[in-house]
């Protein structure tokens, strides 16, 4: 049996520290090695025993969690799961935490925090365990539900021959844990003439619009949060809104997207499997599918369906993943035609679209 992963909890609330400690300690592969009420006390605890994962609040006395996270990533990278009440400009706080290096973020409410944490115990345990396997480098200064597949949203169907006759290319990308940074690096390398891109990034509903705006400011291509009826155009990337599935559709000679509600698929909404399945049916061999860093297996089956329909498929390699979960499962299923380092993915996509 593998040794237990050591977890440090940093939160200024004694109640939250105790509740998180009870939840994390209940998992046989996790051990709470220490708790701290602020980053300064956390630093003292770390001198005695270095944790494998830190569960970190944002709003704390003496030093806020984002500042501590940035210093940690610059000096001694340790996987961090942010567990915080995000208020006010919450979208900016969420993105700031991800950009600073947080592996995962769990939003806790202002009220009934203990009950929320207890109800989310499986999600918390999963996030901490996945974070413990994250690959980090120094940086410069959902409740458990029945697991459903894409059939719950879009029944599998063979690609229609007429749709394969178009020469219009489309790129479909799926990502989860670590994906915000991975997507930024891929999209920043895309020229204005790049083929259209549709993206699912596992992210809460409140944050996808802000994430899209941030990418739009940083990239040559236009990046927006998708809405039903949006055209899929060259030089544009559409990101599925949090809490809704996104499907590629066809209107005459043009690609569009449909945003729809539906059950969680592989514990996620939006689901990468749902997007990839729609792309396999609508675009067939004219698509390129890419699966990036993330925990779990969402997207693996959909990418296999894309490859079976003639699409070219890429997976991020283990060395450049924060969490080599989704790409690993896709590779195991035979869905990945080629594994590529993150820094080479954009160039490889563009070559496959020629």
Automatic annotation (TrEMBL):
Pfam families per the UniProt record, alphabetical: CheB_methylest, Response_reg
Record has Nucleotidyltransferase as a keyword: no
EC number: 3.1.1.61, 3.5.1.44
Lineage start: Bacteria, Pseudomonadati, Pseudomonadota, Alphaproteobacteria, Rhodobacterales
Gene Ontology biological process terms in this record: chemotaxis
Species the sequence originates in: Citreimonas salinaria
Modified residues (4-aspartylphosphate): 57
Gene name per UniProt: cheB
Xref: InterPro entries: CheB-like (IPR008248), CheB_C (IPR035909), CheY-like_superfamily (IPR011006), Sig_transdc_resp-reg_Me-estase (IPR000673), Sig_transdc_resp-reg_receiver (IPR001789)
EC primary class: hydrolase
UniProt keywords, alphabetically: Chemotaxis, Cytoplasm, Hydrolase, Phosphoprotein
Similarity comment: family membership: Belongs to the CheB family.
Reactions accelerated catalytically: L-glutaminyl-[protein] + H2O = L-glutamyl-[protein] + NH4(+); [protein]-L-glutamate 5-O-methyl ester + H2O = L-glutamyl-[protein] + methanol + H(+)
Name of the protein: Protein-glutamate methylesterase/protein-glutamine glutaminase
